[in-house]
């Protein structure tokens, strides 16, 4: 090991230690927050010192306690991922990855069926601890306040005893809801280092966002209902609902936020979301209204508790908007007979991504607002200048795209304007730690496995790495779906049989058709229609928005934007807010909240735009010249011909997954599944019941 690698290893260990200390300290604060120890011993001295500050006022305590640690954790996560990227970008041996094998038991599924979907042991542990935190906070808050309420104290506010208690219960429900809200935005920050640093992806984290969203709305709705009952009991419903307090809690703002939240919540109901996806998609833009009026309702001091996640989300969201402003170069498309389209984009060689990554696609000619995620089937190593996605016609948006490209007039389409966001995926993969790899797919669920096969093929053929034996078990409804197998290998002039480098066996099952020799003979590349486009000069290759050192650049954006935000707030507070607060008339909560929100926006927009322009000037000016030299690929051999000896097709039957999985040889067999819910549950049961000790589920198997 060289001196440089030793320094990196030491730095990684230091970052891990500091991160653990900050994380544990933050957890302790969350646990202690409802207690009298925190209120009287910890918080009082901090407010005594910072609360009188002319630069931050009472908000300085929450900035220090809640917002600063999470921004620092995100910063350290970026540095850690940057170092990991430097040490693993060309490292293909499995020695490092095998260290993760000892945690395989924690990744095993524990819950298979039920409202939560497929949940691992680790997820159950963290979910239990989080629910315990909420229950602890709620019960502790209620207990500490109930003991202080008497009939005499309630009478001073013209309340009966039950009314005073109901009032306090409503407040405590809102406070606990704010704790859930503090975590709500982390899972949907697609490019966040906090997800990647712990091995999560934005797609696998969506279910956490769903869980937290339900908790937030249950608590906030209960909070609102308690107050409606309280106001009705005091005959003050209308006056209280319309109240907007200048220097206190604004009821009207809270009601607007609650209505916006309820509209989003209703459209998440599975039947509504699947049948009316556009309604669900557009309604979710109400998160802007929800957060704005939530801040107006509780004031900026309490809102800072939930601001760290929202801050990181805003950075991610603005970077995505910068990337999606430009159209990308769509160079070709392949139209398959199974209502499926493969789109091939020009890619900057600097853009690297892991297998199973996803990318969001927007086609303005179909819908200007809708963005849909699709799994990338190409390998950034095997195809350095091409990025491909497969789109199955299943909804209105994808059906319009297929109809457009498969119509008789599609040859007249010279250009298709497309914008993208991403790619987003795992920071690293550990498939090499397995002796065998079994991939089970249903229909278009084959897409993530295509990228894995291509990536492993590159490792084996270029770096002579030892890769696991692969078995692809795919179930299709009709024989036309077999054309998806043609996408397993790229049309890049592969002349060598894949079996020379990769030990792969493909078992394809056509469930709704019996064997038909005529149909089987027509399954070849001649039925695939290929379209070539002529991109405009303004179209750009898909490139990393923050350059090759994206994690390091993101760390710079997080740290610099937060410092700029702190400086702006300090100046405005010292010379504008503080002098007014010293008078008898206090500064309005809504105006103060707006100042904080605008300051955050200015800092995020300024630093993100500067980082994007700096990277564009430094890297992309020299690398764009290769794009103009792109020409259609010459296909020397059909991918289906290269894979024909490794493919077995079964008609009129479903795969016996128990038989196929249990008998796989090898001390460590990685099992991946992507497909319908019943298929995922069946594979999960086989692996979790211990029928074969060598079967290990991988985290990407758990799609919502």
Automatic annotation (TrEMBL):
<dbReference type="InterPro" id="IPR050369">
    <property type="entry name" value="RBOH/FRE"/>
</dbReference>
<feature type="transmembrane region" description="Helical">
    <location>
        <begin position="210"/>
        <end position="232"/>
    </location>
</feature>
<feature type="transmembrane region" description="Helical">
    <location>
        <begin position="276"/>
        <end position="296"/>
    </location>
</feature>
<feature type="transmembrane region" description="Helical">
    <location>
        <begin position="551"/>
        <end position="573"/>
    </location>
</feature>
<keyword id="KW-0560">Oxidoreductase</keyword>
<dbReference type="InterPro" id="IPR013112">
    <property type="entry name" value="FAD-bd_8"/>
</dbReference>
<feature type="transmembrane region" description="Helical">
    <location>
        <begin position="63"/>
        <end position="83"/>
    </location>
</feature>
<keyword id="KW-0349">Heme</keyword>
<dbReference type="GO" id="GO:0140618">
    <property type="term" value="F:ferric-chelate reductase (NADH) activity"/>
</dbReference>
<dbReference type="InterPro" id="IPR013121">
    <property type="entry name" value="Fe_red_NAD-bd_6"/>
</dbReference>
<keyword id="KW-1133">Transmembrane helix</keyword>
<feature type="transmembrane region" description="Helical">
    <location>
        <begin position="252"/>
        <end position="269"/>
    </location>
</feature>
<dbReference type="InterPro" id="IPR017927">
    <property type="entry name" value="FAD-bd_FR_type"/>
</dbReference>
<dbReference type="GO" id="GO:0005886">
    <property type="term" value="C:plasma membrane"/>
</dbReference>
<feature type="transmembrane region" description="Helical">
    <location>
        <begin position="593"/>
        <end position="614"/>
    </location>
</feature>
<protein>
    <recommendedName>
        <fullName>ferric-chelate reductase (NADH)</fullName>
        <ecNumber>1.16.1.7</ecNumber>
    </recommendedName>
</protein>
<keyword id="KW-0408">Iron</keyword>
<dbReference type="InterPro" id="IPR013130">
    <property type="entry name" value="Fe3_Rdtase_TM_dom"/>
</dbReference>
<dbReference type="InterPro" id="IPR039261">
    <property type="entry name" value="FNR_nucleotide-bd"/>
</dbReference>
<feature type="transmembrane region" description="Helical">
    <location>
        <begin position="169"/>
        <end position="189"/>
    </location>
</feature>
<keyword id="KW-0285">Flavoprotein</keyword>
<dbReference type="GO" id="GO:0046872">
    <property type="term" value="F:metal ion binding"/>
</dbReference>
<keyword id="KW-0813">Transport</keyword>
<dbReference type="Pfam" id="PF01794">
    <property type="entry name" value="Ferric_reduct"/>
</dbReference>
<feature type="transmembrane region" description="Helical">
    <location>
        <begin position="14"/>
        <end position="33"/>
    </location>
</feature>
<dbReference type="Pfam" id="PF08030">
    <property type="entry name" value="NAD_binding_6"/>
</dbReference>
<keyword id="KW-0274">FAD</keyword>
<keyword id="KW-0472">Membrane</keyword>
<keyword id="KW-0406">Ion transport</keyword>
<dbReference type="GO" id="GO:0006811">
    <property type="term" value="P:monoatomic ion transport"/>
</dbReference>
<keyword id="KW-0520">NAD</keyword>
<feature type="domain" description="FAD-binding FR-type">
    <location>
        <begin position="323"/>
        <end position="430"/>
    </location>
</feature>
<keyword id="KW-0249">Electron transport</keyword>
<comment type="similarity">
    <text>Belongs to the ferric reductase (FRE) family.</text>
</comment>
<keyword id="KW-0812">Transmembrane</keyword>
<feature type="transmembrane region" description="Helical">
    <location>
        <begin position="110"/>
        <end position="136"/>
    </location>
</feature>
<dbReference type="Pfam" id="PF08022">
    <property type="entry name" value="FAD_binding_8"/>
</dbReference>
<dbReference type="InterPro" id="IPR017938">
    <property type="entry name" value="Riboflavin_synthase-like_b-brl"/>
</dbReference>
<keyword id="KW-0479">Metal-binding</keyword>
